[in-house]
Amino acid sequence: MKGLVATFRAGAWAVGLATALACGSAAAQGLPESLNDYPTVARADYVFACMAANGQSSDTLRRCSCSIDLIASILPYEKYVEAETVLSLQLVGGERMSIFRTAANAKVLVANLRRAQAEADILCF
Fold it and tell me: Which end of the chain, N or C, is less surrounded by CB atoms within 10 Å?
């Protein structure tokens, strides 16, 4: 049984090493770590929404991917999530949600996201 476990561990290590070499780390590629802190699901969600708004072509896929990569280089993922949350809460009507439309820190979060998106639009589209 020990031999089987050792073989499994060696195989898992080799697969992990191959994956790391194939993908490379952001630092090894000369990219800032902030580019790599967005989960794949968040990037895919952004690209799907971008393509829905701009067309379903391979050129649009490339441009939308460029856009989220640029946003990720400007805005840490935590701030991106906060801004997206504020934006979604601003869409909800009612007196209780007015804080998300009027609070200074909420406005700053959204403004930072809008700036990143504007820069991405200029460079990618």
Answer: N
**What is the C-alpha separation between 53 and 42, in angstroms, rounded?**
17
Domain count, the chain: 2
Taking only the tens place, the pLDDT of each residue in 99-116 is: 888 899 999 999 999 999
pLDDT mean over 6-34? 41
With contact defined as beta carbons under 8 Å apart, do 84 and 61 qualify? no
Q: Based on the fold, state whether residues 95 and 60 are members of the same structural domain.
A: yes
Q: Which domain holds residue 57?
A: 31-124
Q: Give residue 124's identity as a one-letter amino acid code.
A: C
Angle value at C-alpha 115, between 112 and 116, nearest 5 degrees: 90
Tell me the pLDDT tens digit for each residue of 75-88. Answer: 999 999 999 999 99
In this structure, are 52 and 4 located in the same domain?
no
Neighbours of 74 (CB within 10 A): 17
Could you tell me if 36 and 52 lie in one domain? yes
